[in-house]
Amino acid sequence: MPNRRRALFVLAILLGLAGLSLGAALLAGSVATGPAELLSLLGGEPSLAAEVVLQLRLPRALAGFACGGLLALAGALMQVLLRNPLADPYVLGISGGAGVGALAAILLGLSGLGLDAFAFCGALGALLLVFGLAHGDGSWTQTRLLLTGVIVAAGCGALVALMLSIAPESKLRGMLFWLMGDLSQAGTPWPTLGFLALALLLSLPYARELNLLARGAESAQTLGVAVGRLRGLVYFIAALATAAAVTSAGSIGFIGLVVPHLVRLAIGNDQRLLLPASVLAGGTLLMAADTLARTIIAPEQLPVGVLTALLGVPIFLFLLSRTGGRP
Amino acid sequence: MSPLLTARELVVRIGAQAVCCGLDLSLAAGETLVILGKNGAGKSTLLATLAGLRPPLAGEVLLQQQNYAAHGPRAAARLRGWLGQHRGDPFATTVLETALAGRHPHLGRWQWEGPEDARIARQALLDLGLHGLEERDVQTLSGGERQRLAIATLLTQEAPLMLLDEPLTHLDLNHQIAVLDLLARRTRAGAGLISVLHDPGLAWRYADRVLLIYGDGHTDLGPADALLTPERLQRLYGHPLARVEQDGRVAFIPC
Fold first, then answer.
1. Closest in A84, A211, A226 to B101, CB measured
2. What was the pLDDT predicted at B112?
3. Distance from the CA of B189 to the CA of which of A145, A266, A282, B107 falls in 20 to 30 A?
4. Could B105 and A269 be called an inter-chain contact, meaning their C-beta atoms sit closer than 8 Å?
């Protein structure tokens, strides 16, 4: 029996875990910082440690949280929209579009804000292309949307491969890191966090309707859901969330597919709890993975996307075997 | 008392095939109508049109004297329930959560299901013989159990008008009669019922009126005992049938 008290309890636990993950992200690194120092830093005395924590680690940790939350939210929404447990934020070609934009920007020698703008425009282009093509005749079948997205993603993949093959040696590493997903390039975290808050606030009022949509469009319609409007809304929220995440950190894999499943295995499929819990779990996991990625072979840094996949696969397989194979 | 559902001059087509041309129909509270016809004649399409899921080619469908657009989906959902043919749950959920979905149109946007909603859902599960399965995963249920769960969800919705597309699919004989008896009790309590069935004998036993759909745009609407004759059914199904009567009940046996 779903009830609000249990939902708040689960969310409080996840919030605690997110706090721990943030604390670890602020403490870990080449400039050693203890918990006591961390507390005194908040007092505001200028020092090297304060500089490192506030200017480097905090923005990066928050960007990681925002991207992880956005990807997990987008994944959960896509899985309901397409009624397909295998759907992830990238299945409809959004990240492919962002990849084309980002690589074009790197080829042109852009970085920072210019790179972000190109990536975001690429994502928007793919979003509108898929929406226009799949929605063209007014029908909204999941198969058509899915196939259109997969084909657009394949086209973007080809363009990405083309740009990689003509790119000069010096730019290849940056391009590959972008494609694998890397938080060291993430700038200020606030726009991404804003996107996350907005996406969650827009989707939460429709959470119970999404429960019905997951069971089938026609039965949802007869239970009082304006299905056409809801699908359009969910598509745009999920697509924009994905666009914001990949713009900030590249296409970090795995989080968007697996976090909603992890959460579903643990607490069930009620979207009222699943959506906020996925945001917290996705953000926590990506923050923790990034902390590992920048410390595990320090001073070298791994792209966090590599680590999310390396860690996520065994965790997911373990949970799957424990529950008898019912994601 | 005003009718629960009215169809006026209804024209429904599937591609080039006519289902009905200018059908006039009204259903009062307490009444049971059964739709019969061959596979592909358009029974489900007509039922979906009556449920407001697809627009008619011409004519109008009125739910308590207002069309679906004027009601809006939420208000309409409190007045009419619909049981479709397809069961699909791509994600694991429990039986109780599935039945509680029927409470959706009665809850506010931020409201969660309360004890009264749980009581209604549990009662519906009990009525359908699914008590004790509340916490089971829907994906582990048999076809017949899923079908009964879908009917329980429909009852949980508590809509006075119920439109059921083949409610007896996957059900054993005992469950077929139990479900039809249960629905008959609901109509005696004031609900209106339109069902698509395959067995003219069950239609004879439970329906006040029947609607025969011949698949060429021609339809017959009238009292069950007057319309359900072997001659007419032979024309409907394209196969000869014999009428057998025992203990005041009627069966139609394919020859």
1. A211
2. 93
3. B107
4. no
Other C-beta atoms within 10 Å of A162: how many? Answer: 12
> Of the candidates A3, A223, A326, which has its C-beta nearest B101's C-beta?
A223
Instruction: With CA atoms as reference, report the closest residue to B91 among A297, A263, A130.
Output: A263
- Going along chain B from its start, the domains and CATH numbers come out as 5-254 (3.40.50.300)
Beta-bridged to residue B241, according to DSSP, are B254
Could you report the per-residue pLDDT of B85-128, keeping only the tens digit for each? Answer: 988 778 888 999 999 999 999 999 999 999 999 999 999 999 99
Residue A39 has a CB neighbour count (10 Å cut-off) of 9
CB A223 to CB B77 under 8 A? Answer: yes
Q: Which parts of chain A have pLDDT scores under 50?
A: 325-327
For residue A298, tell me if it sits in a domain: yes
pLDDT on residue A276: 97
Closest residue in A to B72 (Cα–Cα): A224
Specify whether the CB–CB gap between A125 and A67 falls below 8 A. Answer: no
Give the C-alpha separation, B193 to A301, whole Å.
67
Q: How far apart are CA A68 and CA A61, in angstroms?
A: 10
Cis preceding linkage at A299, omega within 30: yes
CA distance B73 to B79: 10
DSSP E strand stretches across chain A: none
What are the DSSP calls for B124-185, one per residue? HHHHTT-TT-TTSBGGGS-HHHHHHHHHHHHHHHT-SEEEEESTTTT--HHHHHHHHHHHHH
Among A160, A171, A169, smallest CA distance to A107 is for A171
Sequence-separated (6 or more) residues with CB below 8 Å from residue A227: A213, A217, A220, A221
Q: How many CB pairs under 8 A join A and B?
A: 90
Residue A270's CB is within 10 A of a number of other CB atoms, namely 23
Sign of the alpha-carbon torsion through A98, A100, A103, A104: negative
Give the total number of structural domains in chain A. 1
Cβ burial, residue A186 (10 Å; 0-12/13-18/19+): buried
What pLDDT, on a 0 to 100 scale, did the predictor assign at position A313? 81
Nearest residue, CB atoms, A221 vs list B73, B98, B102: B73
Residue A2 lies in a domain: no
Interface of A with B (CB under 8 A): 1-4, 79, 83-85, 205, 208-209, 211-212, 214-216, 218-219, 221-226, 264, 268-270, 272, 326-327
**CATH, residue A180:** 1.10.3470.10
Q: Which domain holds residue A131?
A: 7-322
pLDDT tier for residue B144 given thresholds of 50, 70 and 90: very high
Determine whether the interchain pair A224/B91 forms a contact, defined as Cβ–Cβ distance below 8 Å: no
Does residue A327 form part of some domain? no
Q: What is the model's pTM?
A: 0.91
Nearest neighbour of B104 by CB, restricted to A84, A205, A208: A208
Probe site for chain A from B78, B91, B134, B140 (most A CB atoms < 10 A): B91
Question: Reduced to 3 states, what is the DSSP secondary structure of residue A226?
Answer: coil
